[in-house]
Amino acid sequence: MTTKSELQDILRFFTQDAKIPLQVALPKIKDLQRANLISIVELAVADVKTIEDIFSDQKTAKQIVSAAKRVSKKRKPSDASSALLSKRVKKVPEGEDLTPAAIEQSLSLPVVDVDVEDLMKISLHTNRAPLVLAFAVTLLKYTMPSQPLSSRLSLAQAVVSANSRSKAVSIGLEKGPSAGEDGWGLGQPKVKVMNREIHTLKRWGYDAGEGADAPNQIHTLHQSQTKEEPVGESSQAVSSRNTIMEDVEKEPALWGLDLESMRSSSKSLQNEKSTGGLPIYTAQSARAYLMKSFSSKVPIMEGEGNSKKKSVTPTEKERNLALLLKALDLLCSSWAPFISMEDLDRRSWSWYVQVRPEVDSGIAGWGGKGEVKLSDIISLRRKG
What we know:
Blueprint: H1 4-17, H2 22-25, H3 29-34, H4 40-44, H5 48-55, H6 58-75, H7 80-85, H8 100-106, H9 116-119, E1 123-127, H10 128-143, H11 149-170, E2 190-193, E3 196-203, H12 215-223, H13 235-248, E4 253-256, H14 259-263, H15 265-271, H16 283-291, E5 295-296, H17 314-335, H18 341-355, E6 369-373, H19 374-378
Helix pairs in contact: 5-6, 10-11, 10-17, 10-18, 11-16
């Protein structure tokens, strides 16, 4: 759903910059939403033919694109924007030939049926980035419950990338402002995930249940986004949460925008998807990263100073991911009914810091791996 400020911005652009009469632009807003063309940046990289189909006039379409490019260049502090805005590369995104329901089904994450007592005994071996990813994917199920799994994976990967760049700057591996601080993504809607602002792209018209061949499949797609009401929760809390749920269900699905790729024209040309020309973090790559990142903690053998290395099969890594996600879900579900979505998001980063693997400080610890005890995650559950 386009916010009031977004609507005002785009209409102001049409009337003042593109010189399109309000009575012409206003009836086209819904068509522009469906085409993911509701911001100046999106219009600047759009195909003229797409806009021509909406406004039924080639001259008007060219006028809009030219104005969008001109305004975008003024707003960007770097000349790199002109390189990005002047090129349009169309590629078929992964899974475009599938229905939305089939796409969501293909992205499903492993689950495991295990007792809490058994979870408490498990330790995993990983580095920090995939743990952030797992935290964010699980958290979003509770803070943005209307978002399908494909969106949660994309948004979570955006958090990981933003966090990794901040860390790289702090230890001297990167210099200068981030793409977001440099003005890229201006005008795009933002959401907070793990207390970090993420630029997004609205996926107008995307229905995760479209193409489901049976009611049971629709139920499967959405069951991970619902929560049972806890015993003892007040009627006021239930009413408040239901009101919030009704509001968020009106929101469209989102992609996380890859602003660093947007800033780098050459990289952007390699990674752009068919999303109006804007590079996104794909759900498929985020899922693949999760599936391969969690090894079992190997006990230290007698007479050895370090953990003995052994090969870990993909099946074992998938089970380890399922165990981690189970522990994270137990944590989030214990708090979600009793605090606001905003508060849950704020607390999540401190929870991550308490359980993340210990690594060397500075550059020496970059990408380093360590132990993650699931008991540490489970101990953070709400008491009582």
